[in-house]
Write a structure and sequence with these properties.
alpha+beta, three-stranded mixed β-sheet, DUF748, AsmA-related, about 1100 residues
C-alpha cells in the first residue's frame, strides 16, 4: 500500500507540464480558430442577414483579436433593394469584455464608428427607406413575449461617432436634399443595469451652418435621460419644404437658436417629459404673403424661462420678447387680410380626413381623453413694430400705418380653453390714415393704454385709461358739398351674404365692458369749406379733451382748444342713458375772421375783425333747454369793398345776465362801447347799405321765401327782454354825395342808455343818449318806444345844438339856391307815432346867420331868404321857429324831410308877405347857459367861453367877473329829480357809470317799481306806503304817481341852489383859465344870485369891468 501511494505521488509531477501544454495548445487552437473564423463568420452572417431582407451589406477587412475580444470592421456598406446606399462607415471598432458573459451580462469597453454616413430618403409616396428596412427586419406581427420584455443586461463604457454624416433626400417634400456634417457623438457608461447613468454628447453642423450640441446623461434601466439640446444658426428655409404644404408661404429668412434643458423618465407606465429653463432666439425673420407681396419682418424673437411638463400638461414661458417687427397687410372688400391665403383651404383637409377615416383600421380606445393644456406667458413684450395696412373695402382704398412702440401683457390659457389677459399695456405712435394717393386726413402722434384685463371666457373687458396725444384731423368740404372724410370712409356695397356673415359674427353673449377714461392732448382739428363763395378755413390748435364714466352712471366731458389767440373750453356732464346734458361753455377772444364767410356769404362786405367771448351755462333735458351767463363780441369791423373806412363796427359789445329758454330770452345789461356807423348817400341819393347784398337768382329767392312765409305763420317767437343797453362813445359818419357840393358830418361821443326793451305787448323802453356833432355841436336823444311796434308807439325827442350853418351849405344851395357863410343851428325835434300817425313838433333856432351869394345856376323855386332872415332875426341875431308837422306813414308820398321843408317854406312865405319886420345889428352873445340842475358847461357854451377868452386876451385892460345863477323853479325841479331818480336807480341795483346822463326810471321794470315803493316808504312812512299798496295794484301808473309825490316832497333849500350856482361859476372860470391861463389875475368870481331861466337854460352871471 505504501509503495503504490508513493509511486502515484512520484508520477504526478511528471503529468502537470503535459496537461498545461495541452491546455495552452487548446487555447491557442481556440484563439486561432476565433481569429480566423470570427471575421469570416461576421462577414457571412452580415451578408446573410442583409440578403434575407433584400438588401446588400458588404464588409471590408474584418479584424478580430480574440485575446482582447476586440473586433474591427473596415469599410462597412449597406445598400437598399435598388442599390441606393443606406449606411456606410469607414471603420467599426468594438472592444468587449469576455468574463461578464459568464454571468449573462454584456460589457463593451468601446464602440466606435469612424466616418459613419446614413442616408435617409423618402419617396414620392411618403415612405422612408429606413421605415421599409425596419418593417422587413421585424417580420410578421407576433404577440409580445411578456417573459422576454426585460431588456438584456448591457454596459457600454464608451460609444463614439466620429465625423459622421446624415444625408437627407426627400422627394415628397419637393426633392429636398440636406446634409448634416460633421456629426460627432460620444456616449459614456450606457447601461441597462438599474441606476447606472451614462453620459453622452452629440455635436453636429448642418450644411446651412446650423450647429447642434446635445449632451447629457442616459439611464436605460429604467429609461431616463437628462440633458441639454442646443441648436444655433438654424435657418428656417432649410425645413420649409416640410412646412409649406401646411403654410403656403415662400421660404422665409431668419435664423433660430434654441437651448432645451429636458428631463425624460419612463420608469413608470406614464411617460414623463419636462423641460425647464428653455430659451430660444429667432433673428432676422422675413416672410412674404402669397399673392399680394405683403411682407412680415421680425428683428428678434427672444424666449427665456420656458417650462414644459407633459404629465401635468403645463407650458410656461417666463418672458417672450418680439422686437423690431414690420407687418404689411392688405384687407379685401370683406375685411379679410391677405395673410389668410397662406392657410390651407378647408376642402383639402376635409377630403383627406374622409379618406383616412375610410381606409384606417378601427382603433380601440384604451385611455380617456387627456385634459387640456395650461399655458402661461406672464411677460410678453412687443417693442418697436411698424404696422401698415391697406383696406380695399372702401370705394377708394384706405391706407393706414402705425408704429407699435410697446405692448406688454400676461396671457394665461386654462385647461378648459379659456383665455385671460392681464396687465396689458400698449403704446402706439405715428398713426396715419389716408385715402389712396391723397394726403392723410388723420394722424396721431401717440396713444397709450394703461393696464388692462381681458377674459374671453367670461367675455369681460376692463381696459385701462387711454391717453391720446398729437391727433391731427383734417376735414374738408368740396364745392359739391361733400365731405372728404365721408368719401374716404364710404364702403363698397355690402352684399346680403356679407351682411349675414357680419351679423352672425356679432351674435353671442354680450360683452361686459368697463369704460375707461379717455384723454386727448396736444391735438389739432382743421376744417376747410370750399362750398362757399369765400372759402372757409378754420384750425383748432392745442386741442385737449377727457371723457370718463359709463352709460349707467353718466359721462363727464371736458374739452379745451385754441383758435388763433382765443381759447375755447367745455365742461359737461351727460346723465345716465345720455338723456340730460348740463355743462359750462367758456370762450375767450375767439377770432371770427375764419368763420365770417358763413355770415357774410350773401353780402359784398369784407370782414375786418371780431372776437367772441362767452361764459355760458347750459342744460338740455329732452326738448327743453336753457342757458345763462354772459357773452361779448369785441373789435368788430365790417368794410365795404375797396374802402378802408369802417362801415359798421364797435370796440366792445358785452351782454351780461343772459337767461334763455325756448319761450323766453332775458338779457341784463348790454354794453356797447365805441360803435361806429358809416352812412353814405351816393350821387343818386341811394344809401350805401342798399348795395351790400349780392344779387340772388329769382328762383333761389323764391325757394327761400316760401319756407320762410310758412314758418312765420306757425312759429311763435320767444319773449325777449333787455334790462339796459349802455352806449359809450358812439360815432356815425354821414355823407350826401347827391348834393352839389357834397355834404358830410359826424356825430360822435354819443353815450347813454336804453332801458326796459321788451317784446311784451304794451311795454315801452326809454332812451337817453347824449353826443356831439363835429367840433362844438351836440345832440341829445330822449324818449320812449315799443321795440316791436315802433310805428305804433313812439315818442322821441332829438335835440341838435350849435350846428355850424356853413356845414349845411350843400342843402341850402341845393334846395334854396343860397350860400350861407356863417351862423349856427339848434333844433329840437319831437316824433310822436300813434298807430302809424305822425305828430311832430320841431323847433329850429338859427343864430347869427349870414347869407352869402345866390347860386346863379339854381333852377328850383327861389326863396327870399335874405328878406326872411331880416324879418325873423331878433335883436340878438336869433331866429326861433316852431315847425309842427303831421302825416300818415301809409301815405304813398310820405317823407318826413319833405314835411319839415314844406313847413319851413310856409313860414318863410308868411313872414315875407307880412309888412312888419324888426331890424337889429350886432355881433357876439350876451349870455352863457348851463342846463337846469347841472353844474357842467355844455359844449356849445364852451365855445362862447373860448371866444370870450380870446376877446379878453385882445383887450388887456378888460376884466371879467363871472358867477353862477340859479333859477329857483327849474333848478329845484331838476335837483329834486336827480335826488329821487338816483335813489330809485340805486335801490334797483342800477349803477351809474362815469359821465352817464341820469336816465328816466322805467316804471315797467318790477325792480324799478319796488325801488319807488321803498323810497316812498322811507319818505312818507310805512303806513302811507301800506295804504297805497293795499288800495292800488302794482302798475306803472301807481309807481309813476308815487314818484310824482316823491318829487313834490323834495325840499331844495337856498344853500343847495347857491352851491349849484357857485359850482357853475367855478366851472366856467376854470374853462376860461384852461383856454388862456394868463387871464388868472383878470377873472374873478361873483356871488351866486337868482336868475330867470329860459329855453336855452339857466344863464350865468357875466360882468365886465
Amino acid at each position: 500500500m505504501m509503495s503504490e501511494t508513493a509511486a502515484q505521488a512520484a508520477a504526478t509531477p511528471a503529468r502537470w507540464p503535459r496537461r498545461l501544454l495541452w491546455s495552452a495548445a487548446t487555447v491557442a487552437v481556440l484563439l486561432g480558430g476565433l481569429w480566423a473564423g470570427v471575421p469570416k463568420a461576421v462577414d457571412y452572417a452580415a451578408g446573410n442577414w442583409a440578403q434575407k431582407l433584400g438588401r446588400k451589406l458588404t464588409l471590408g477587412e474584418v479584424e478580430f483579436a480574440p485575446w482582447a475580444w476586440r473586433l474591427t470592421v473596415h469599410d462597412v456598406r449597406l445598400n437598399d433593394r435598388d442599390g441606393t446606399p443606406l449606411f456606410s462607415a469607414a471603420r467599426l471598432h468594438v472592444d468587449a469584455e469576455a468574463l461578464p458573459l459568464l454571468i449573462g451580462r454584456f460589457e463593451l469597453a468601446e464602440l466606435t464608428l469612424d466616418t459613419p454616413r446614413l442616408w435617409a430618403a423618402r419617396n414620392a409616396q411618403g415612405e422612408w427607406n429606413w421605415t421599409r428596412l425596419l418593417r422587413d427586419a421585424a417580420g410578421p406581427d407576433t404577440e409580445p413575449d411578456e417573459e422576454a420584455s426585460e431588456p438584456p443586461k448591457l454596459l457600454l463604457t464608451q460609444l463614439a461617432l466620429n465625423k459622421g454624416q446624415l444625408l437627407l433626400h426627400d422627394q415628397l417634400g419637393g426633392d429636398v436634399q440636406r446634409q448634416v456634417l460633421p456629426l460627432d457623438f460620444q456616449l459614456k457608461n450606457l447601461s441597462t443595469l438599474p441606476n447606472n447613468h451614462g453620459r453622452y454628447r452629440l455635436a453636429a453642423e448642418l450644411g446651412d451652418g446650423t450647429r447642434l450640441d446635445w449632451q447629457g446623461s442616459l439611464l436605460l434601466q429604467p429609461l431616463q435621460s437628462d440633458g441639454v439640446l442646443k441648436a444655433s444658426g438654424f435657418t428656417l428655409a432649410s425645413v420649409w419644404p416640410y412646412v409649406q404644404p401646411h403654410l403656403k408661404l415662400a421660404p422665409p429668412q431668419g435664423k433660430l437658436s434654441v437651448s432645451l434643458p429636458y428631463h425624460f423618465d419612463l420608469a413608470g407606465k406614464t411617460v414623463r417629459l419636462s423641460a425647464k429653463g428653455v430659451a430660444a432666439n429667432l433673428a432676422a425673420l422675413a416672410v412674404t404673403a402669397p399673392g399680394s407681396g405683403s411682407s412680415f419682418k421680425l428683428g428678434q424673437l427672444a424666449l427665456s424661462g420656458g417650462e414644459f411638463d407633459l404629465a401635468s400638461r403645463r407650458l410656461t414661458v417666463g418672458r417672450l420678447s418680439l422686437a423690431g417687427g414690420e407687418l404689411d397687410t392688405v384687407l379685401d372688400s370683406l375685411g379679410q387680410p391677405d395673410w389668410l391665403a397662406a392657410l390651407p383651404s378647408a376642402a383639402a383637409p376635409a377630403a383627406a380626413s374622409v379618406k383616412t377615416a375610410a381606409t384606417a383600421k378601427p382603433a380601440v380606445a384604451t385611455t380617456k381623453p387627456a385634459g387640456g393644456w395650461t399655458v402661461s406667458l406672464p411677460a410678453i413684450h412687443v417693442d418697436n413694430w411698424q404696422l401698415r395696412a391697406e383696406h380695399r373695402g372702401f370705394v377708394a382704398p384706405l391706407a393706414a400705418s402705425v408704429r407699435l412702440d410697446s405692448l406688454q401683457a400676461a396671457v394665461a390659457v386654462a385647461a378648459d380653453g379659456s383665455v385671460r389677459v392681464d396687465n396689458a399695456t400698449l403704446a402706439l405712435s405715428q398713426l396715419s390714415a389716408a385715402s389712396q394717393g391723397k394726403p392723410a386726413f388723420a394722424s396721431l402722434a401717440r396713444l397709450q393704454l394703461a393696464s388692462s384685463q381681458l377674459d374671453l371666457g367670461k367675455r369681460q373687458l376692463t381696459p385701462g385709461d387711454i391717453s391720446v396725444a398729437g391727433l391731427q384731423l383734417a376735414i374738408a368740404r368740396n364745392k359739391a358739398g361733400q365731405l372728404d372724410i365721408g368719401e374716404a370712409l364710404r364702403p363698397l356695397p355690402v352684399t346680403t351674404t356679407t351682411a349675414a356673415t357680419l351679423a352672425a359674427a356679432s351674435a353671442g353673449q354680450p360683452w361686459q365692458v368697463r369704460y375707461p377714461q379717455l384723454t386727448l392732448a396736444q391735438s389739432a382739428l382743421s376744417w376747410r369749406d370750399a362750398g362757399r363763395s369765400q372759402p372757409v378755413s378754420v384750425a383748432l390748435q392745442d386741442v385737449s379733451a377727457s371723457v370718463s364714466g359709463d352709460p349707467q352712471q353718466g359721462f363727464a366731458v371736458q374739452l379745451a382748444a385754441a383758435l388763433g389767440q382765443g381759447r375755447l373750453q367745455l365742461d359737461a356732464t351727460l346723465a345716465a342713458k345720455l338723456q340730460d346734458i348740463k355743462g359750462k361753455l367758456r370762450a375767450s377772444r375767439l377770432p371770427l375772421r375764419d368763420v365770417a364767410p358763413y355770415a357774410l356769404d350773401n353780402t359784398v362786405l369784407r370782414f375786418g375783425g371780431g372776437e367772441l367771448s362767452a361764459d355760458l351755462g347750459f342744460a338740455l333735458q329732452g326738448s327743453r333747454w336753457q342757458a345763462d351767463g354772459k357773452a361779448a363780441l369785441d373789435k368788430l369791423a365790417l368794410f365795404e369793398p375797396g374802402r378802408r373806412e369802417v362801415l359798421l363796427g364797435w370796440q366792445q359789445l358785452a351782454v351780461s345776465g343772459i337767461k334763455a329758454q325756448p319761450d323766453r330770452i332775458s338779457l341784463g345789461d348790454v354794453r356797447l362801447v365805441s360803435p361806429q356807423l358809416r352812412l353814405i348817400l351816393d350821387e343818386k341819393r341811394v344809401p350805401n347799405f342798399a348795395h351790400l347784398m349780392k344779387p340772388q337768382p329769382a328762383a333761389k329767392t323764391a325757394a327761400k321765401a316760401a319756407p320762410a312765409a310758412k314758418g312765420d305763420s306757425g312759429d311763435k317767437l320767444p319773449l325777449v327782454e333787455v334790462r339796459a343797453v349802455r352806449v359809450r362813445n358812439a360815432r356815425m359818419d354821414f355823407a350826401d354825395l347827391g348834393l352839389n357840393p357834397s355834404f358830410a358830418t359826424r356825430i360822435h361821443s354819443l353815450s347813454g342808455t336804453v332801458l326796459g326793451l321788451s317784446s311784451r305787448p304794451g311795454r315801452r323802453g326809454t332812451v337817453t343818449l347824449d353826443g356831439r356833432v363835429d367840433q362844438f355841436g351836440d345832440v341829445r336823444i330822449r324818449g320812449a318806444l315799443s321795440p316791436l311796434a315802433v310805428t305804433n308807439d313812439l315818442d322821441m325827442v332829438l335835440n341838435f345844438r350849435n350846428i355850424p350853418l356853413g356845414s349845411l351849405n350843400p342843402y341850402s344851395m341845393t334846395f334854396a339856391g343860397w350860400k350861407i357863410t356863417d351862423g349856427s343851428l339848434s333844433t329840437e325835434l319831437r316824433y310822436v307815432l300813434k298807430n302809424r300817425q305822425l305828430q311832430g313838433e320841431n323847433r329850429m333856432v338859427i343864430d347869427h346867420i349870414q347869407l352869402g351869394e345866390e347860386v346863379s345856376d339854381y333852377d328850383g323855386t327861389r326863396l327870399p331868404l335874405r328878406l326872411a332872415v331880416a324879418l325873423l332875426e331878433d335883436s340878438d341875431g336869433r331866429i326861433d321857429l316852431s315847425l309842427p308837422v303831421a302825416g300818415s306813414l301809409d301815405a304813398p308820398d310820405f317823407s318826413y324831410g319833405h314835411l319839415v321843408w314844406q313847413a319851413f317854406r310856409n313860414i318863410v312865405v308868411k313872414i315875407v308877405t307880412a309888412p312888419f319886420r324888426a331890424l337889429f345889428g350886432g355881433e357876439g352873445f350876451d349870455d352863457i347857459y348851463a342846463d337846469a340842475g347841472d353844474d357842467r358847461i355844455p359844449p356849445p357854451e364852451r365855445e362862447k367861453l373860448l371866444k370870450l377868452a380870446e376877446l379878453l386876451v385882445k383887450r388887456p385892460k378888460l376884466a371879467l367877473a363871472i358867477g353862477g345863477g340859479y333859477d329857483v323853479e327849474q333848478d329845484s325841479r331838476e335837483l329834486a329829480r336827480y335826488r329821487v331818480d338816483s335813489d330809485i336807480l340805486k335801490r334797483a341795483a342800477y349803477q351809474l357809470q362815469a359821465d352817464e346822463p341820469l336816465p328816466l326810471p322805467d316804471m315797467g321794470d318790477p325792480a324799478i317799481r319796488k325801488a319807488v315803493g321803498d323810497g316812498y316808504a322811507v319818505q312818507f312812512g310805512r303806513f302811507a306806503w301800506l295804504k297805497r299798496v293795499a288800495s292800488e295794484k302794482d302798475t306803472a301808473e301807481r309807481a309813476q304817481s308815487m314818484r310824482g309825490e316823491l318829487l313834490a316832497a323834495q325840499k331844495i333849500d337856498d344853500s343847495a341852489l347857491q352851491a349849484l350856482a357857485r359850482a357853475r361859476g367855478e366851472a366856467a372860470r376854470q374853462l376860461l383859465l384852461t383856454a388862456k391861463p394868463e387871464l388868472v389875475e383878470r377873472i374873478s368870481v361873483l356871488d351866486a344870485d337868482k336868475v330867470k331861466a329860459d329855453k336855452d337854460g339857466v344863464p350865468l352871471l357875466l360882468k365886465l369891468k
